[in-house]
Amino acid sequence: MPILPGVVLLDEALRAIEVDLDLDLRQWQIGAAKFLEFVRPGEALTIEHTSPESGLIRFTVRVADRPALTGTLSLAPAGGA
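Predicted structure:
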């Protein structure tokens, strides 16, 4: 039974957030990422996130009604991390 690798799930979440918020995420860093459920290839996913106004983006990737991945992004310190 194949599963979607966590790195692929995280990468797709970051791409969706980047497009949705029209941000360059190269200026952001992953503060946390927690994988909660297996995701099988072909399963429909939804991505929820907060706005970046506070310097922090919280996100959740859901498969069906269950969270599969939760995490945070924070604005990287000036000059790189």
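Summary: The chain has one helix and four strands.
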